[in-house]
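Q: Joint fold for the lines below.
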Amino acid sequence: MSVLLKTWALVRHTVRESLARKTFIAFFTISTIVLIFMILALNIEAVEAGMAMVQVMGQDINKSDGFDIQKIIMDIEAVIAVVMFSGGIFLSIFATASLVPNMLEKGYIELLVSKPLTRTQIILGRYLGAVAIMGLNVIYLIGGTWLILSIKTGVWYQPYLYSIPMIIVTFAIVHALMVLVGVTTRSTGVTIMVAYTLLFLSPFLQQKDKIYALLSSKVYYYLLESLYQILPKTFELGEMNHALVVGRPIDSWVPLWTSCVVGVVLLSSATLIFSRKDF
Amino acid sequence: MLALETQDLTKIFRSGKVTALDGVSLAVDTGHIFGLLGPNGAGKTTLIKILLGILYPTSGSARILEHPLNNIQVKEKIGYLPENHRYPEFLKGGQVLDYFARLSGVSMQDIQKRKPALLEMVNLLEWQNTKIKKYSKGMLQRLGMAQAMMNDPDILFLDEPTDGVDPIGRRAIRDVLRRLQSEGKTIFINSHLLSEVEMICDQVAILDKGRLVSSGTVEELTSPSKKYRFQTVGIPDDVVAKLKPFALKIEHYNNSLEATCANFYSVNDIIDCLRANNVVIKSIVPHKRTLEESFIEILKKDVIN
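A: Joint structure:
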Protein backbone atom coordinates (compact mmCIF):
# COMPACT_ATOMS: atom_id res chain seq x y z
CA MET A 1 0.00 0.00 0.00
CA SER A 2 2.79 2.36 1.01
CA VAL A 3 4.63 1.52 -2.24
CA LEU A 4 1.54 2.45 -4.27
CA LEU A 5 1.03 5.69 -2.36
CA LYS A 6 4.65 6.74 -2.91
CA THR A 7 4.45 5.90 -6.63
CA TRP A 8 1.17 7.80 -6.84
CA ALA A 9 2.90 10.83 -5.23
CA LEU A 10 5.52 10.67 -8.00
CA VAL A 11 2.88 10.35 -10.74
CA ARG A 12 0.90 13.30 -9.33
CA HIS A 13 4.02 15.40 -9.06
CA THR A 14 4.94 14.64 -12.69
CA VAL A 15 1.45 15.64 -13.85
CA ARG A 16 1.71 18.85 -11.83
CA GLU A 17 5.18 19.57 -13.24
CA SER A 18 3.90 19.01 -16.80
CA LEU A 19 1.01 21.41 -16.16
CA ALA A 20 3.45 23.97 -14.75
CA ARG A 21 5.34 23.91 -18.03
CA LYS A 22 2.23 25.31 -19.76
CA THR A 23 2.65 23.17 -22.91
CA PHE A 24 -0.09 20.84 -21.78
CA ILE A 25 -2.22 23.80 -20.73
CA ALA A 26 -1.85 25.04 -24.33
CA PHE A 27 -2.75 21.55 -25.55
CA PHE A 28 -5.82 21.56 -23.30
CA THR A 29 -6.78 25.08 -24.46
CA ILE A 30 -6.52 24.08 -28.12
CA SER A 31 -8.65 21.00 -27.38
CA THR A 32 -11.24 23.21 -25.66
CA ILE A 33 -11.31 25.60 -28.63
CA VAL A 34 -11.89 22.60 -30.95
CA LEU A 35 -14.75 21.39 -28.74
CA ILE A 36 -16.36 24.86 -28.59
CA PHE A 37 -15.95 25.20 -32.34
CA MET A 38 -17.74 21.89 -32.85
CA ILE A 39 -20.56 22.89 -30.54
CA LEU A 40 -21.09 26.16 -32.40
CA ALA A 41 -20.30 25.11 -35.99
CA LEU A 42 -22.37 21.95 -36.15
CA ASN A 43 -26.09 22.62 -35.86
CA ILE A 44 -28.39 19.67 -36.38
CA GLU A 45 -32.11 19.63 -35.96
CA ALA A 46 -33.47 16.19 -35.27
CA VAL A 47 -37.13 15.61 -36.01
CA GLU A 48 -38.65 12.45 -34.72
CA ALA A 49 -36.41 9.52 -35.61
CA GLY A 50 -34.71 11.11 -38.60
CA MET A 51 -32.81 14.27 -39.27
CA ALA A 52 -34.69 16.99 -41.06
CA MET A 53 -31.74 19.25 -41.63
CA VAL A 54 -28.05 19.41 -40.94
CA GLN A 55 -26.07 22.62 -40.84
CA VAL A 56 -22.31 22.57 -40.92
CA MET A 57 -20.76 26.05 -40.53
CA GLY A 58 -24.09 27.63 -41.47
CA GLN A 59 -24.52 25.64 -44.73
CA ASP A 60 -27.66 23.49 -45.08
CA ILE A 61 -27.13 19.91 -46.13
CA ASN A 62 -30.26 17.92 -47.04
CA LYS A 63 -30.60 14.18 -46.86
CA SER A 64 -32.20 14.20 -50.32
CA ASP A 65 -28.85 15.34 -51.83
CA GLY A 66 -27.44 11.88 -51.21
CA PHE A 67 -26.07 13.02 -47.91
CA ASP A 68 -24.97 10.25 -45.50
CA ILE A 69 -24.70 11.67 -41.98
CA GLN A 70 -22.96 8.56 -40.68
CA LYS A 71 -20.26 8.93 -43.35
CA ILE A 72 -19.79 12.65 -42.58
CA ILE A 73 -19.45 11.97 -38.85
CA MET A 74 -17.01 9.12 -39.53
CA ASP A 75 -14.92 11.38 -41.79
CA ILE A 76 -14.85 14.20 -39.23
CA GLU A 77 -13.85 11.79 -36.48
CA ALA A 78 -11.22 10.14 -38.69
CA VAL A 79 -9.66 13.54 -39.41
CA ILE A 80 -9.58 14.40 -35.69
CA ALA A 81 -8.12 10.99 -34.82
CA VAL A 82 -5.35 11.33 -37.41
CA VAL A 83 -4.54 14.93 -36.44
CA MET A 84 -4.59 14.00 -32.76
CA PHE A 85 -2.33 11.01 -33.41
CA SER A 86 0.39 12.96 -35.16
CA GLY A 87 -0.13 16.43 -33.64
CA GLY A 88 -0.83 15.16 -30.16
CA ILE A 89 2.23 12.95 -30.07
CA PHE A 90 4.34 15.71 -31.63
CA LEU A 91 3.28 18.21 -28.95
CA SER A 92 3.54 15.68 -26.14
CA ILE A 93 7.13 14.81 -27.03
CA PHE A 94 7.96 18.49 -26.77
CA ALA A 95 6.07 18.86 -23.48
CA THR A 96 7.50 15.81 -21.73
CA ALA A 97 11.07 15.65 -23.05
CA SER A 98 12.51 17.57 -20.11
CA LEU A 99 10.85 15.49 -17.39
CA VAL A 100 13.64 12.93 -17.00
CA PRO A 101 16.62 15.30 -17.55
CA ASN A 102 15.08 17.72 -15.02
CA MET A 103 14.66 14.92 -12.52
CA LEU A 104 18.34 14.06 -12.91
CA GLU A 105 19.53 17.58 -12.10
CA LYS A 106 22.02 17.85 -9.28
CA GLY A 107 20.47 18.70 -5.96
CA TYR A 108 17.12 17.13 -6.82
CA ILE A 109 18.01 13.58 -7.83
CA GLU A 110 20.01 13.10 -4.62
CA LEU A 111 16.93 13.96 -2.59
CA LEU A 112 14.72 11.67 -4.62
CA VAL A 113 17.09 8.72 -4.42
CA SER A 114 17.58 9.22 -0.67
CA LYS A 115 13.86 8.67 -0.08
CA PRO A 116 12.47 5.20 0.70
CA LEU A 117 11.73 4.44 -2.95
CA THR A 118 13.27 1.92 -5.28
CA ARG A 119 14.85 3.40 -8.36
CA THR A 120 12.38 1.42 -10.47
CA GLN A 121 9.57 3.21 -8.64
CA ILE A 122 11.14 6.59 -9.39
CA ILE A 123 11.42 5.91 -13.13
CA LEU A 124 7.96 4.32 -13.33
CA GLY A 125 6.40 7.21 -11.42
CA ARG A 126 7.92 9.67 -13.86
CA TYR A 127 6.96 7.59 -16.89
CA LEU A 128 3.38 6.96 -15.79
CA GLY A 129 2.93 10.63 -14.91
CA ALA A 130 3.91 11.69 -18.43
CA VAL A 131 1.65 9.08 -20.04
CA ALA A 132 -1.20 10.05 -17.68
CA ILE A 133 -1.14 13.75 -18.54
CA MET A 134 -0.98 12.94 -22.26
CA GLY A 135 -3.79 10.40 -21.85
CA LEU A 136 -6.01 12.88 -20.04
CA ASN A 137 -5.66 15.34 -22.91
CA VAL A 138 -6.43 12.66 -25.49
CA ILE A 139 -9.48 11.46 -23.55
CA TYR A 140 -10.65 15.06 -23.20
CA LEU A 141 -10.40 15.88 -26.91
CA ILE A 142 -11.42 12.55 -28.46
CA GLY A 143 -14.05 11.81 -25.80
CA GLY A 144 -15.35 15.39 -25.97
CA THR A 145 -15.65 15.50 -29.76
CA TRP A 146 -17.25 12.05 -29.76
CA LEU A 147 -19.85 13.15 -27.21
CA ILE A 148 -20.64 16.41 -29.02
CA LEU A 149 -20.94 14.74 -32.42
CA SER A 150 -22.96 11.84 -31.04
CA ILE A 151 -25.37 14.00 -29.05
CA LYS A 152 -25.85 16.44 -31.93
CA THR A 153 -26.31 13.87 -34.65
CA GLY A 154 -27.63 10.87 -32.76
CA VAL A 155 -24.90 8.85 -34.51
CA TRP A 156 -22.99 7.05 -31.76
CA TYR A 157 -20.02 5.83 -33.77
CA GLN A 158 -17.91 3.87 -31.28
CA PRO A 159 -14.86 2.89 -33.39
CA TYR A 160 -13.73 6.52 -33.09
CA LEU A 161 -12.99 5.82 -29.43
CA TYR A 162 -10.40 3.17 -30.40
CA SER A 163 -8.09 6.03 -31.22
CA ILE A 164 -7.85 6.87 -27.49
CA PRO A 165 -5.93 3.70 -26.54
CA MET A 166 -4.05 3.73 -29.86
CA ILE A 167 -2.72 7.26 -29.33
CA ILE A 168 -1.91 6.65 -25.65
CA VAL A 169 -0.14 3.34 -26.38
CA THR A 170 1.86 4.91 -29.22
CA PHE A 171 2.93 7.81 -27.01
CA ALA A 172 3.77 5.38 -24.18
CA ILE A 173 6.09 3.49 -26.56
CA VAL A 174 7.75 6.68 -27.82
CA HIS A 175 8.06 7.97 -24.27
CA ALA A 176 9.83 4.77 -23.20
CA LEU A 177 12.52 5.65 -25.75
CA MET A 178 12.59 9.22 -24.43
CA VAL A 179 13.09 7.98 -20.86
CA LEU A 180 16.00 5.80 -22.01
CA VAL A 181 17.63 8.70 -23.87
CA GLY A 182 16.95 11.06 -20.95
CA VAL A 183 18.51 8.70 -18.40
CA THR A 184 21.53 8.08 -20.61
CA THR A 185 22.26 11.61 -21.83
CA ARG A 186 20.50 13.85 -19.24
CA SER A 187 19.74 16.16 -22.18
CA THR A 188 16.32 17.51 -23.12
CA GLY A 189 17.56 18.53 -26.56
CA VAL A 190 18.92 15.08 -27.42
CA THR A 191 15.72 13.46 -26.11
CA ILE A 192 13.58 15.62 -28.42
CA MET A 193 15.87 15.00 -31.38
CA VAL A 194 15.83 11.22 -30.93
CA ALA A 195 12.05 11.09 -30.51
CA TYR A 196 11.40 13.21 -33.61
CA THR A 197 13.96 11.21 -35.57
CA LEU A 198 12.01 8.07 -34.71
CA LEU A 199 8.77 9.64 -35.98
CA PHE A 200 10.57 10.82 -39.11
CA LEU A 201 12.27 7.47 -39.78
CA SER A 202 9.24 5.31 -39.22
CA PRO A 203 7.47 5.92 -42.60
CA PHE A 204 10.77 5.33 -44.41
CA LEU A 205 11.39 2.08 -42.58
CA GLN A 206 7.91 0.92 -43.45
CA GLN A 207 8.97 1.31 -47.08
CA LYS A 208 12.19 -0.59 -46.44
CA ASP A 209 11.69 -3.08 -49.28
CA LYS A 210 11.24 -0.31 -51.85
CA ILE A 211 14.26 1.56 -50.50
CA TYR A 212 16.38 -1.59 -50.56
CA ALA A 213 15.46 -2.18 -54.18
CA LEU A 214 17.24 1.09 -54.99
CA LEU A 215 20.39 0.13 -53.09
CA SER A 216 23.15 -2.24 -54.12
CA SER A 217 24.70 -3.78 -51.02
CA LYS A 218 23.16 -6.48 -48.83
CA VAL A 219 24.46 -4.51 -45.84
CA TYR A 220 21.71 -1.94 -46.39
CA TYR A 221 19.12 -4.66 -46.30
CA TYR A 222 20.32 -5.87 -42.90
CA LEU A 223 20.63 -2.31 -41.66
CA LEU A 224 17.10 -1.35 -42.71
CA GLU A 225 15.64 -4.64 -41.52
CA SER A 226 17.36 -4.33 -38.13
CA LEU A 227 16.20 -0.75 -37.64
CA TYR A 228 12.69 -1.75 -38.64
CA GLN A 229 12.64 -4.59 -36.13
CA ILE A 230 14.21 -2.78 -33.17
CA LEU A 231 12.45 0.56 -33.46
CA PRO A 232 8.81 1.24 -32.59
CA LYS A 233 6.68 1.27 -35.75
CA THR A 234 4.92 4.57 -35.13
CA PHE A 235 3.89 5.11 -38.76
CA GLU A 236 2.14 1.74 -38.94
CA LEU A 237 0.50 2.44 -35.58
CA GLY A 238 -0.84 5.66 -37.13
CA GLU A 239 -2.22 3.70 -40.07
CA MET A 240 -3.80 1.19 -37.68
CA ASN A 241 -5.34 4.08 -35.75
CA HIS A 242 -6.91 5.41 -38.96
CA ALA A 243 -8.09 1.95 -40.02
CA LEU A 244 -9.72 1.32 -36.64
CA VAL A 245 -11.54 4.65 -36.72
CA VAL A 246 -12.90 4.24 -40.25
CA GLY A 247 -13.84 0.62 -39.53
CA ARG A 248 -11.38 -0.87 -42.03
CA PRO A 249 -10.12 -4.35 -41.11
CA ILE A 250 -6.58 -4.51 -39.68
CA ASP A 251 -4.23 -6.54 -41.93
CA SER A 252 -1.84 -7.42 -39.13
CA TRP A 253 -1.54 -6.63 -35.45
CA VAL A 254 2.18 -7.43 -35.52
CA PRO A 255 3.33 -3.76 -35.65
CA LEU A 256 1.32 -3.07 -32.49
CA TRP A 257 2.56 -5.90 -30.36
CA THR A 258 6.16 -5.75 -31.58
CA SER A 259 6.19 -2.00 -30.83
CA CYS A 260 4.79 -2.72 -27.37
CA VAL A 261 7.55 -5.29 -26.76
CA VAL A 262 10.15 -2.74 -27.94
CA GLY A 263 8.60 -0.18 -25.57
CA VAL A 264 8.85 -2.58 -22.63
CA VAL A 265 12.48 -3.38 -23.51
CA LEU A 266 13.33 0.33 -23.79
CA LEU A 267 11.72 1.15 -20.45
CA SER A 268 13.36 -1.83 -18.76
CA SER A 269 16.75 -0.75 -20.13
CA ALA A 270 16.17 2.78 -18.85
CA THR A 271 15.27 1.41 -15.41
CA LEU A 272 18.32 -0.83 -15.36
CA ILE A 273 20.70 2.00 -16.32
CA PHE A 274 19.06 4.34 -13.80
CA SER A 275 19.29 1.72 -11.05
CA ARG A 276 23.03 1.31 -11.54
CA LYS A 277 23.88 4.98 -11.87
CA ASP A 278 25.82 6.99 -9.27
CA PHE A 279 24.46 10.47 -8.59
CA MET B 1 23.20 1.11 19.63
CA LEU B 2 25.11 2.29 16.61
CA ALA B 3 23.38 4.81 14.38
CA LEU B 4 25.79 4.06 11.59
CA GLU B 5 28.86 2.02 10.96
CA THR B 6 31.17 1.74 7.98
CA GLN B 7 33.78 -0.92 7.28
CA ASP B 8 36.61 -0.20 4.83
CA LEU B 9 34.33 1.87 2.66
CA THR B 10 36.03 2.67 -0.62
CA LYS B 11 34.81 4.60 -3.64
CA ILE B 12 36.81 4.92 -6.81
CA PHE B 13 35.50 7.13 -9.62
CA ARG B 14 36.25 7.30 -13.33
CA SER B 15 37.64 3.87 -14.00
CA GLY B 16 40.06 3.91 -11.10
CA LYS B 17 41.47 7.39 -11.60
CA VAL B 18 39.99 9.15 -8.55
CA THR B 19 39.85 7.54 -5.13
CA ALA B 20 37.19 9.53 -3.31
CA LEU B 21 37.07 7.26 -0.26
CA ASP B 22 39.89 5.00 0.79
CA GLY B 23 38.96 2.33 3.33
CA VAL B 24 36.95 4.48 5.72
CA SER B 25 35.81 2.75 8.89
CA LEU B 26 33.87 4.69 11.47
CA ALA B 27 31.05 4.23 13.94
CA VAL B 28 28.57 6.73 15.30
CA ASP B 29 26.48 6.02 18.37
CA THR B 30 22.83 7.04 18.51
CA GLY B 31 21.97 10.33 20.16
CA HIS B 32 25.13 12.14 19.10
CA ILE B 33 25.78 15.11 16.87
CA PHE B 34 28.60 13.90 14.66
CA GLY B 35 30.63 16.29 12.56
CA LEU B 36 32.48 15.14 9.48
CA LEU B 37 35.26 17.56 8.63
CA GLY B 38 37.71 17.81 5.82
CA PRO B 39 39.03 20.13 3.14
CA ASN B 40 37.24 20.41 -0.20
CA GLY B 41 37.42 17.14 -2.11
CA ALA B 42 38.18 15.11 1.04
CA GLY B 43 35.29 12.73 0.37
CA LYS B 44 32.76 14.04 2.90
CA THR B 45 29.82 14.29 0.50
CA THR B 46 30.81 11.00 -1.13
CA LEU B 47 30.57 9.27 2.26
CA ILE B 48 27.10 10.70 2.95
CA LYS B 49 25.93 9.80 -0.56
CA ILE B 50 27.08 6.21 -0.13
CA LEU B 51 25.29 5.96 3.21
CA LEU B 52 22.09 7.17 1.55
CA GLY B 53 22.31 4.91 -1.49
CA ILE B 54 22.93 7.78 -3.90
CA LEU B 55 26.36 6.40 -4.78
CA TYR B 56 27.39 2.77 -4.74
CA PRO B 57 30.59 1.86 -2.88
CA THR B 58 33.40 0.23 -4.85
CA SER B 59 34.13 -1.98 -1.85
CA GLY B 60 33.47 -2.19 1.87
CA SER B 61 30.19 -2.17 3.71
CA ALA B 62 28.05 0.05 5.88
CA ARG B 63 25.00 -0.20 8.11
CA ILE B 64 22.53 2.46 9.14
CA LEU B 65 20.40 1.88 12.24
CA GLU B 66 21.70 -1.70 12.07
CA HIS B 67 20.35 -2.28 8.55
CA PRO B 68 22.43 -2.77 5.41
CA LEU B 69 22.47 0.08 2.88
CA ASN B 70 20.20 -1.68 0.40
CA ASN B 71 17.33 -1.72 2.89
CA ILE B 72 14.73 0.68 1.49
CA GLN B 73 12.50 0.70 4.59
CA VAL B 74 15.24 2.08 6.84
CA LYS B 75 15.22 5.23 4.70
CA GLU B 76 11.85 6.09 6.24
CA LYS B 77 13.82 6.84 9.41
CA ILE B 78 16.39 9.02 7.66
CA GLY B 79 16.26 12.74 6.93
CA TYR B 80 18.62 14.34 4.43
CA LEU B 81 19.53 17.88 3.50
CA PRO B 82 21.84 17.76 0.47
CA GLU B 83 24.39 20.42 -0.33
CA ASN B 84 23.06 22.76 -3.05
CA HIS B 85 19.65 21.15 -3.00
CA ARG B 86 17.18 22.10 -5.71
CA TYR B 87 13.45 21.83 -5.36
CA PRO B 88 10.99 22.10 -8.27
CA GLU B 89 10.47 25.84 -8.64
CA PHE B 90 6.79 25.63 -9.49
CA LEU B 91 6.06 24.37 -5.96
CA LYS B 92 5.19 26.51 -2.98
CA GLY B 93 7.06 26.07 0.30
CA GLY B 94 4.28 24.03 1.89
CA GLN B 95 3.94 21.86 -1.23
CA VAL B 96 7.65 20.99 -1.10
CA LEU B 97 7.14 19.60 2.39
CA ASP B 98 3.98 17.72 1.33
CA TYR B 99 5.66 16.13 -1.68
CA PHE B 100 8.83 14.92 0.00
CA ALA B 101 6.94 13.77 3.09
CA ARG B 102 4.65 11.65 0.90
CA LEU B 103 7.70 10.13 -0.78
CA SER B 104 9.01 9.29 2.69
CA GLY B 105 5.81 7.42 3.45
CA VAL B 106 4.42 9.98 5.93
CA SER B 107 0.63 9.77 6.35
CA MET B 108 -1.58 12.77 5.50
CA GLN B 109 -2.55 13.19 9.16
CA ASP B 110 1.10 13.37 10.20
CA ILE B 111 1.87 15.79 7.36
CA GLN B 112 -0.94 18.10 8.50
CA LYS B 113 0.35 17.89 12.06
CA ARG B 114 4.08 18.33 11.43
CA LYS B 115 4.09 20.82 8.57
CA PRO B 116 2.93 23.95 10.44
CA ALA B 117 5.15 23.12 13.41
CA LEU B 118 8.25 22.71 11.25
CA LEU B 119 7.49 25.78 9.14
CA GLU B 120 7.08 27.74 12.35
CA MET B 121 10.35 26.35 13.66
CA VAL B 122 12.31 27.43 10.56
CA ASN B 123 10.47 30.73 10.48
CA LEU B 124 8.72 30.16 7.15
CA LEU B 125 5.11 29.73 8.21
CA GLU B 126 3.95 32.91 6.52
CA TRP B 127 5.86 31.94 3.37
CA GLN B 128 4.31 28.49 2.92
CA ASN B 129 1.99 29.66 0.14
CA THR B 130 4.71 31.47 -1.79
CA LYS B 131 6.41 29.79 -4.73
CA ILE B 132 9.94 28.83 -3.79
CA LYS B 133 11.44 30.60 -6.80
CA LYS B 134 10.87 33.76 -4.75
CA TYR B 135 12.80 32.38 -1.75
CA SER B 136 16.28 33.62 -0.82
CA LYS B 137 19.15 31.15 -0.40
CA GLY B 138 18.80 31.25 3.36
CA MET B 139 15.06 30.59 3.14
CA LEU B 140 15.65 27.63 0.85
CA GLN B 141 18.17 26.26 3.29
CA ARG B 142 15.69 26.57 6.16
CA LEU B 143 13.01 24.96 4.02
CA GLY B 144 15.48 22.16 3.33
CA MET B 145 15.92 21.65 7.07
CA ALA B 146 12.16 21.38 7.51
CA GLN B 147 11.96 18.97 4.57
CA ALA B 148 14.63 16.76 6.13
CA MET B 149 12.64 16.57 9.37
CA MET B 150 9.16 15.98 7.93
CA ASN B 151 9.39 12.22 8.43
CA ASP B 152 10.50 12.63 12.07
CA PRO B 153 13.79 10.85 11.30
CA ASP B 154 15.92 8.92 13.78
CA ILE B 155 19.05 9.99 11.93
CA LEU B 156 19.51 13.25 10.11
CA PHE B 157 22.20 13.82 7.47
CA LEU B 158 22.98 17.48 6.89
CA ASP B 159 25.42 18.47 4.16
CA GLU B 160 26.59 22.03 4.87
CA PRO B 161 23.38 22.93 6.74
CA THR B 162 24.30 26.52 7.58
CA ASP B 163 25.53 27.38 4.10
CA GLY B 164 23.98 30.70 3.07
CA VAL B 165 22.16 31.15 6.37
CA ASP B 166 22.58 34.39 8.32
CA PRO B 167 23.86 34.34 11.93
CA ILE B 168 20.35 34.43 13.41
CA GLY B 169 19.28 31.57 11.17
CA ARG B 170 22.41 29.62 12.12
CA ARG B 171 21.63 30.02 15.74
CA ALA B 172 18.06 28.83 15.11
CA ILE B 173 19.42 25.76 13.28
CA ARG B 174 21.80 25.02 16.16
CA ASP B 175 18.92 25.25 18.62
CA VAL B 176 16.85 22.87 16.51
CA LEU B 177 19.69 20.37 16.30
CA ARG B 178 20.29 20.47 20.05
CA ARG B 179 16.60 19.89 20.64
CA LEU B 180 16.63 16.93 18.27
CA GLN B 181 19.63 15.51 20.07
CA SER B 182 17.83 15.82 23.39
CA GLU B 183 15.05 13.73 21.83
CA GLY B 184 17.58 10.99 21.14
CA LYS B 185 18.06 11.65 17.42
CA THR B 186 21.42 11.21 15.75
CA ILE B 187 22.68 14.05 13.58
CA PHE B 188 25.44 13.65 11.03
CA ILE B 189 26.78 17.01 9.89
CA ASN B 190 29.11 17.52 7.01
CA SER B 191 30.65 20.96 7.17
CA HIS B 192 33.73 22.99 6.55
CA LEU B 193 32.61 25.68 9.03
CA LEU B 194 34.73 24.47 11.92
CA SER B 195 33.51 27.01 14.45
CA GLU B 196 29.94 25.85 13.80
CA VAL B 197 30.93 22.23 14.21
CA GLU B 198 32.85 22.99 17.39
CA MET B 199 29.82 24.70 18.87
CA ILE B 200 27.39 21.90 18.19
CA CYS B 201 29.07 18.54 17.61
CA ASP B 202 30.14 16.19 20.35
CA GLN B 203 31.96 13.77 18.06
CA VAL B 204 34.01 14.57 14.99
CA ALA B 205 36.00 12.79 12.32
CA ILE B 206 38.42 14.32 9.88
CA LEU B 207 38.71 13.08 6.33
CA ASP B 208 41.57 13.97 4.03
CA LYS B 209 42.01 12.69 0.48
CA GLY B 210 39.42 10.02 1.16
CA ARG B 211 41.09 8.70 4.30
CA LEU B 212 39.94 9.01 7.87
CA VAL B 213 42.85 10.80 9.54
CA SER B 214 41.39 11.47 12.98
CA SER B 215 38.27 10.94 15.02
CA GLY B 216 37.10 11.44 18.57
CA THR B 217 35.20 13.84 20.75
CA VAL B 218 35.62 17.57 20.24
CA GLU B 219 37.31 17.70 23.66
CA GLU B 220 39.84 15.10 22.61
CA LEU B 221 40.70 16.96 19.44
CA THR B 222 40.88 20.35 21.13
CA SER B 223 42.76 19.13 24.22
CA PRO B 224 44.61 21.89 26.08
CA SER B 225 48.03 22.66 24.72
CA LYS B 226 51.07 23.18 26.95
CA LYS B 227 50.61 26.93 26.77
CA TYR B 228 49.48 29.00 29.79
CA ARG B 229 48.67 32.69 29.91
CA PHE B 230 49.60 34.42 33.18
CA GLN B 231 47.73 37.68 33.70
CA THR B 232 49.63 39.80 36.25
CA VAL B 233 49.96 43.36 37.54
CA GLY B 234 53.18 44.17 35.71
CA ILE B 235 56.23 41.91 35.52
CA PRO B 236 59.73 43.35 35.67
CA ASP B 237 62.08 42.11 32.95
CA ASP B 238 64.51 40.65 35.48
CA VAL B 239 61.70 38.41 36.85
CA VAL B 240 60.91 37.22 33.35
CA ALA B 241 64.54 36.24 32.96
CA LYS B 242 64.33 34.21 36.19
CA LEU B 243 61.36 32.26 34.77
CA LYS B 244 63.18 31.01 31.68
CA PRO B 245 64.63 27.84 33.27
CA PHE B 246 61.09 26.63 34.13
CA ALA B 247 59.52 27.01 30.69
CA LEU B 248 60.20 25.73 27.23
CA LYS B 249 59.31 29.12 25.82
CA ILE B 250 58.29 32.43 27.33
CA GLU B 251 56.67 35.40 25.63
CA HIS B 252 56.35 38.60 27.61
CA TYR B 253 53.70 41.28 27.06
CA ASN B 254 52.88 44.37 29.20
CA ASN B 255 50.86 42.78 31.96
CA SER B 256 50.98 39.18 30.94
CA LEU B 257 53.20 36.42 29.81
CA GLU B 258 52.63 33.28 27.84
CA ALA B 259 54.62 30.26 28.92
CA THR B 260 54.90 26.92 27.20
CA CYS B 261 55.53 24.37 29.94
CA ALA B 262 56.65 20.76 29.82
CA ASN B 263 54.29 19.73 32.64
CA PHE B 264 52.20 20.95 35.58
CA TYR B 265 55.27 21.07 37.85
CA SER B 266 56.79 23.74 35.64
CA VAL B 267 53.59 25.76 35.90
CA ASN B 268 53.82 25.57 39.69
CA ASP B 269 57.49 26.56 39.58
CA ILE B 270 56.57 29.66 37.57
CA ILE B 271 53.82 30.54 40.07
CA ASP B 272 56.27 30.13 42.96
CA CYS B 273 58.86 32.31 41.25
CA LEU B 274 56.34 35.04 40.45
CA ARG B 275 55.04 35.05 44.04
CA ALA B 276 58.58 35.03 45.45
CA ASN B 277 59.25 38.19 43.44
CA ASN B 278 56.04 39.83 44.67
CA VAL B 279 54.31 39.71 41.31
CA VAL B 280 50.53 39.79 41.70
CA ILE B 281 48.88 37.04 39.63
CA LYS B 282 45.38 37.93 38.41
CA SER B 283 44.68 34.72 36.48
CA ILE B 284 46.24 31.66 34.88
CA VAL B 285 44.44 30.39 31.79
CA PRO B 286 45.47 27.22 29.99
CA HIS B 287 45.39 27.85 26.28
CA LYS B 288 42.81 25.60 24.58
CA ARG B 289 43.26 24.87 20.92
CA THR B 290 40.31 25.66 18.70
CA LEU B 291 38.99 22.94 16.45
CA GLU B 292 40.34 24.91 13.54
CA GLU B 293 43.86 24.84 14.98
CA SER B 294 43.61 21.12 15.67
CA PHE B 295 42.19 20.53 12.20
CA ILE B 296 45.02 22.37 10.47
CA GLU B 297 47.59 20.62 12.66
CA ILE B 298 46.15 17.19 11.87
CA LEU B 299 46.06 17.91 8.15
CA LYS B 300 49.65 19.19 8.23
CA LYS B 301 50.78 16.00 9.99
CA ASP B 302 48.89 13.98 7.39
CA VAL B 303 50.68 15.77 4.56
CA ILE B 304 54.07 15.14 6.22
CA ASN B 305 53.25 11.45 6.74
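Q: Anything notable?
A: Chain A touches chain B through 26 residues (CB under 8 Å). The two ends of chain A are 28 Å apart (CA to CA).
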